[in-house]
Amino acid sequence: MTSPDSFSFRSKFSSEEEKEKALVTQYRDLLHQKQGELQKTLQAGLKSFHEVDLAQAAREFRKLANDLKLLEKLATDKGNHTDRNTLNDLSGKQWIQHTKSWVVVDGRPGSITKEIKDHPASFPPSLAEFFISYFTKRGQWVMDPFMGIGSTVEACFTTQRNCFGTELNPKYCEFAQSRISKILNKDKKRKENIPKDLQWNIFNSDARNATSLWQDQNTPPIDFLITSPPYWNMLKKSRGGVKSVLKQRVEKGLDEYYSESQHDYGNIDDLAGYLSQLTDLFVSFKPLLKPKAYLMIILQNCRPKDGEMRPIAWDFANHMKEHFILRQEFIWCQDQKFAGIWGYPTTYVSNVHHHYCLVFQNSR
Ligand SMILES: C[S@@+](CC[C@H](N)C(=O)[O-])C[C@H]1O[C@@H](n2cnc3c(N)ncnc32)[C@H](O)[C@@H]1O
């Protein structure tokens, strides 16, 4: 006969075993995907090498070395997950790796398609993956109200989280919506392993409509919000001088800014108005968010042509503090971005290759 104690022990044991099994499948899929990405980076490196673009080849090989380090960590350094962990599915060892206050993430040249290039300011899916893995558990809901071309959507798919998002520009939204099927069509193995109940509720809409869309769709409460709004109207401000990246984009026929829409937060010229409208938007999401949900909002301080820095990330944090608890900031660094020789040879103008990933928590 089974005593109640041994029964509960056994059921606990088998539920842990189930979780272990699920983790093994998750890691196998992730490793498979990362191996594919590594191969692409290696091929890009070899190609540059053959074309005697040694600087580019060196960048690709450095990227490969970083990726290999990450892959090694994933494969070997899992540590133990405890049931007391209510925030994520990570072990103690992995947890530490996610709490250092800065992270270096660059896009993978091999996976940057024409559609991705066409968007003036997307973040790499691996950046969103890194944070989503820390702030949520598998199967939870992630929101991105400024979805762009869907880097968060792809990261949710990779980490097996559900995703709810809005994007104003129909061209970007269409790409975000087709992004997952494109990945699946290329990778049959991933198609077999994807959980049937994973959902992506993503809409071509003004983020101001997110609450009603969320209600109409009966979307569950959101566990984590990660997004990067337009950095004020910076894309519309010419930097002048040496040919800027933006000017080069125009020559290649790529989008220079997001849209001409009056609803686009990138078209609000008055800085005070931009900061207060953006804060109001996030406050309007409170009913969608779980009571203690975290929000990560990625911004950059700006330096327009007049040379005076506008610390919009810091100012925004101060606005938001009135409504949410400001917990911390992560600094996202880009190590392989084009560096211009701005200001040379008279004036200090930096290459701004870092962004503030501000972490707030839905209050009390
Ligand atoms: C910095 S980008 C986000 C890029 C995104 N993280 C990605 O990786 O693709 C900001 C996005 O906000 C969108 N946007 C601007 N105003 C909006 C609004 N009112 N509602 C929804 N999206 C908006 C822009 O079209 C742009 O794609």
Automatic annotation (TrEMBL):
EC nos: 2.1.1.113
Keywords on record:
DNA-binding, Methyltransferase, Restriction system, S-adenosyl-L-methionine, Transferase
Q: Does the keyword Disulfide bond apply?
A: no
What reactions does this protein catalyze? a 2'-deoxycytidine in DNA + S-adenosyl-L-methionine = an N(4)-methyl-2'-deoxycytidine in DNA + S-adenosyl-L-homocysteine + H(+)
- Pfam families, alphabetically? N6_N4_Mtase (PF01555)
Where do the DNA methylase N-4/N-6 domain residues begin and end? Answer: 95-177
User: Is Methyltransferase given among the entry's keywords?
Assistant: yes
Homology family: Belongs to the N(4)/N(6)-methyltransferase family. N(4) subfamily.
Q: What is the recorded name of this protein?
A: Type II methyltransferase
Query: Which species does this protein come from?
Result: Candidatus Lokiarchaeum ossiferum
